[in-house]
Amino acid sequence: MVIGYAQPGKARSFQVLEAFTAGCGGRVAQRPVLEDGDVAFYGTLGLEWMVRQVRAEGRTFYFGDNSFFDAGRGRFFRFARDAFQVHEKMPPDHGRLAALGVKIRPWAAGGRHIVVVEQSEHFLELSGIGKHWLVRVLADMRRYTDRPLVVRRWRRDKAKAASTLAADLRGAWALVTHMSAAANEALIAGVPAFVSGLCAATPMASGELSKIESPNRPDGREDWAAGLAGAQWTLGELRDGTAWRGLNDHQPG
Length: 253
Description:
By secondary structure, this protein is of the alpha/beta class. It has 2 domains: about 1-90 and about 225-250, no CATH class; about 115-225, Rossmann fold (3-Layer(aba) Sandwich), CATH 3.40.50. The chain contains 10 helices and 10 strands. The strands form 2 sheets. A 6-stranded mixed beta sheet has the order 2-1-3-4-5-10, with helices on both faces. The protein has a 4-stranded parallel beta sheet with strand order 7-6-8-9, covered by helices on one side. Helix 7 links the parallel strand 8 and strand 9 (about 195). Helix 3 packs across helix 8 (about 220-230). The model has no long low-confidence stretch (mean pLDDT about 95).
């Protein structure tokens, strides 16, 4: 039995979890009281204690969030088992990637500035990275590069933030974040990405910040992106069990 715990006051959290648990024969809890069984989350503000307890007890949990790509925002939702995101290559679904309209651009030949994308302090603490990630990263980067930095502070309005990302990526040398989906956007735009947490971008990312002046530009981004396209689902696919089957059948590779 999978029990979903919706973020208090967030209607979308209840909507997504209701669909996900319907697809796996579970249900959404009516109260924030931790019950026996596997657990699903979509949004964690106000439920931090529960996430920590579930992980400390070694329970199976499912963590949901919005699409891996801005092109699917509001229509597709991702879930990962026992992780905040999938962080290995998934079986590619090229048809699904094409239907999203996601285009993989060639690696940029140069670029001047570095885009730094902050995430919420709430999420950074919950993911184990601690407070003041941005302060620490900016200090570290100054040890390795003197390139101009474009700092994108965390914004609650994700759609509005996404609307300006493409402009910041134009002419960029690299993007740096913890595990924001902005790293996926950078990679499909041909901009190398550095991430400090295990996330969807990890298989294509560039490693430590000490390599900021010599980032990786690996082959295989089309298959990587197609794998992510196949690891996110519509509300209907959550409800009819397609997502549940995908989570249980797909083996990272």
